[in-house]
Design a protein that fits this description.
Chain lengths: ~325, ~325
């Protein structure tokens, strides 16, 4: 009866890749996903949840595998007409993708919570695993830059991460209630481990950790908590992680990511190119495993997932 | 300086056809359109204005000429995905068309009025003529049927006009303020005539007449007011006009349309097939002109427009 359970914490494209691997080896009873909502925003009157959508599209097979976000077989007629009408076109919304934003927004306006809406819409696309937004309450990442404070999507998409970062805030996080299903998974006797996917620490994982109760539960978690490095050979596979590290004056090293989570991490997964960092990370009092972490093929995703779960099981 | 001015009152596809003809012979200084908003509705959180859109798309050349509504070169990816997500799909929203609803809704939510939004969005598509929604305040047609009261689009689109009609109401009309630009055109010394396009009297024209001030101004109008019959040989070219007449126990004759407007009409344009009705309509104390009114080609639209304007000018 008591199926062993794993909880994956993810945001963004790299996280979704490992999530797909994990979902291919662990069934819906054994695996759930905690997803970042810090990059959600209201756009054109719609509630857009980029990290939820990337995960839903990835797990359902709807994702555009070239970009890692948005829908496959997408068309852009809406955007072209919006442009003709003088609307805001800096955030790309495909015709298929629009249905997600419109239907989510409609359901939220009816009073449903984000978790329930996510469950139902993901279910419609055939996703059986639970996707748990960190909170139904708004958490909004804001980026402090040399050009001033920017809403996350203005920084990330409109300004293409160009302004130099000096800090972050997660508006609403302090008073946000942690999704109770996340607490239930973390407190479950069946919990075998928690996996932080290779996501940006500053803008994918930290917004979730800012929601009261999550970090505490990770610190107190009797099952191992491990993270997979989003930094490989001093570079990020995708996204501004390393650019942010440089601007924040932090060495662009996988060991810095391990250090970032040192208060609750029991294990860290390094790419084999970074094996020289193992000793430094072990000195943070966590176990280290190295493997091939760059995910290009589906086999890469499944292989890394298997290696990470094995690592978690060894630590348990 | 004082360009002669004409005001066309329109709703729906037949009205838009004549409107296009009128716009091809009268410039933006000489012609403005009063448009029905009684079939506007909130759908999926968006403000949809079907009659405004039909006119905007028709005048801009964006219209799907096969259907008479929606956009040419349209695609339906949004609808297919909405269907997959379990959303409401009874009202067809094309991918290009969606941009209009989203951008209009965004601007309305910002506090702009419907008239201003309409002017700006139509202008973006190259429409120079003024399109004047009857009011910025909501007017919502509701249809009393043997199946109960129905919101207009539920009756018209979802239920395909199947329930038998017993009456109408125009919620909000009593307290709606007439668009001041409509009052200004009707009170202009340059006004040469008012043209009711061949639109459904019950659900395209009556909702506008229910807005305080419009009917009074038409009754008091020193320039001729003429209507073009939407009923030809006892049939409607498109839409439920004749079905409604039958259900309401009104003879399905063009003369009934003339009678419907008899308190303010100075002239009536019949199709030549209905020339036998001329005497009956003249007995309502209005002038009658007959011509070919069925508009298939652009030449038909322009030809009818020219004939109607000549008729108005003769009555002036």
């Amino acid at each position: 009866m008591n199926t062993p359970r794993y909880l994956a914490i993810t945001g963004g494209i790299g996280g979704a890749k490992l999530s797909l691997g994990l979902a291919s080896i662990l069934g819906p009873e054994a695996l759930a996903f905690v997803v970042n909502t810090g990059d959600d925003f209201e756009h054109l009157g719609l509630h857009v949840s980029p990290d939820i959508d990337t995960l839903v599209y990835t797990l359902s097979g709807e994702v555009d595998t070239e970009t890692g976000w948005g829908c496959r077989d997408e068309s852009w007629q809406f955007m072209a007409m919006l442009d003709a009408l003088g609307g805001e076109t800096w955030f790309q919304l495909g015709d298929r993708d629009m249905a997600m934003h419109v239907e989510r927004s409609r359901r939220l306006a009816e009073g449903q919570g984000l978790a329930q809406v996510t469950k139902e819409l993901a279910g419609r696309l055939g996703v059986a695993h639970r996707i748990l937004p960190v909170s139904d309450d708004p958490v909004r990442t804001r980026v402090q830059t040399t050009a001033g404070w920017l809403d996350f999507q203005h920084y990330f998409v409109r300004d293409r991460c160009e302004p130099a970062v000096t800090g972050f805030e997660f508006a609403g996080a302090e008073s946000a209630r942690l999704n109770p299903d996340i607490a239930a998974w973390l407190e479950s006797e069946a919990l075998r481990g928690v996996i932080l996917c290779p996501s940006n620490p500053f803008v994918s994982i930290d917004p979730m950790l800012a929601v009261p109760g999550l970090r505490d539960r990770l610190c107190a978690c009797p099952a191992p908590v491990v993270a997979v490095s989003p930094v490989v050979g001093g570079d990020a596979i995708k996204g501004p992680t390393v650019k942010m590290m440089r601007e924040l004056g932090v060495p662009n090293s996988a060991s810095q990511v391990a250090s970032h989570y040192r208060d609750f991490l029991d294990g860290f997964v390094l790419d084999s190119v970074d094996v020289a960092l193992a000793g430094e990370i072990e000195s943070l009092r966590m176990a280290v495993m190295h493997t091939h972490t760059v995910m290009v093929s589906l086999e890469d995703r499944t292989g890394l997932a298997r290696a990470v779960v094995d690592f978690v099981d060894r630590l348990g």
